[in-house]
Design brief:
Layout (H helix, E strand, L loop, with lengths): L2 H6 L21 H19 L2 H7 L2 H23 L8 H21 L5 H8 L2 H11 L7 H18 L12 H19 L6 H26 L20 H27 L2 H7 L3 H13 L5 H19 L4
Helix pairs in contact: 2-11, 2-13, 3-11, 4-10, 4-11, 5-9, 5-10, 6-8, 6-9, 7-9, 7-12, 8-14, 9-11, 10-11
Length: 325
């Protein structure tokens, strides 16, 4: 049995399209995917800049649970009005993808309790490297030298934007955000390989439900554990369920609505183009977040970070200039 059929068999039974590479069954519209990812980064860069407001008043787990409740209500209403199908065609594939992506995000946010944002983000943005490795060794897909070069350039740009120089210490704790990057990469590949026939709305619902489940589990654990919680944003990870403030509810709703639109665009990008190409474009979220930080809070980029942004843009241009055959 071919390697790809063995790897995908639990998720793709009855789907003859899984016997050939995704590039042969889906239109590889790289430029359109790049545009979708850019809009995704524009929206997420804005909403994520207000997580600091949420962290002041609530906890990570309550945030996930509350955001999921809001997002699912919005999604169900939109589905009813627009006649959108939310029921998955392949429940096992959607469940697997949702748990993989949800776990990646839980690890990512959890690491913020003992690592800096720069270290955690640098670990997560190893995802394009894992996309290439998984595409090559799990699916046997040929990866050209230009895509490898683009990933290297983009990752170097990320390090410069985050201020991680060649002498920056990297300890064992960095393995956790790198694990999040690996899971995030697998989830993105699952979007392309396992869930090509699903609607973006179905995958959105699965993603939010997984995060909501993790949020409920986290609140239950903290209700039993009841650790000492620091004041303000420092207690974001260990704060259990509290009475929500108006500010918490408002910015959580902004997160829910913005994520529905933005993540939906990202999901669609991975459905219409090769995952190893789309992954490189996700680097744009860093300069976009930096732009919003400057507009909203007056935070300025260092010259090194500006060089990093140029490298990130260059990586995207290499990918866009060499579409798949």
């Amino acid at each position: 049995m071919p390697k790809e059929r063995v790897f995908l068999a639990p998720f793709t039974q009855g789907n003859p399209m899984t016997d050939v590479p995704v590039s042969a069954t889906l239109p590889n519209r790289t430029l359109l995917a790049a545009g979708l990812v850019t809009v995704y980064a524009f929206i997420i860069g804005f909403t994520d800049n207000f997580v600091r407001q949420i962290a002041e008043d609530g906890g990570l787990w309550q945030f996930h649970a509350t955001r999921t409740a809001m997002a699912i209500v919005l999604l169900v209403v939109a589905a009813g009005v627009m006649g959108i199908r939310l029921r998955p065609r392949n429940p096992r594939a959607v469940l697997a993808r949702s748990l993989i992506h949800g776990t990646a995000m839980v690890i990512y946010f959890g690491c913020l309790a003992f690592l800096s944002v720069a270290e955690v983000a640098a670990g997560l943005f190893t995802a394009p490297i894992f996309v290439l490795l998984l595409s090559r060794f799990a699916w046997g897909q040929r990866i050209g030298p230009f895509r490898i070069l683009a990933v290297a350039i983009g990752f170097a740009g990320v390090l410069l934007v985050l201020g991680l120089g060649a002498g920056a210490p990297v300890g064992p704790a960095m393995l956790l955000p790198i694990a999040a990057g690996a899971l995030y990469a697998l989830g993105n590949l699952a979007t392309t390989r396992w869930c090509g026939e699903e609607s973006a709305e179905t995958l959105l619902a699965g993603f939010f439900l997984a995060l909501g489940l993790f949020g409920l589990i986290g609140m239950a654990v903290l209700a039993l554990w009841q650790p000492e919680v620091p004041q303000g944003a420092a207690g974001f990870l260990f704060r259990g369920a509290v009475w929500p403030t108006g500010r918490f509810l408002f910015w959580t709703f902004v997160q829910a609505a913005g994520s529905l639109v933005a993540v939906g665009m990202m999901v669609r990008a991975y459905q219409i183009a090769d995952a190893s190409r789309v992954a490189v474009f996700e680097y744009v979220i860093l300069p976009m977040s930096a732009l919003w930080s400057f507009v909203l809070w007056g935070d300025r980029l260092t010259p090194t970070a500006m060089v990093g942004i140029v490298l990130i843009i260059a990586a995207g241009m290499v990918i866009a200039a060499r579409p798949g055959r």
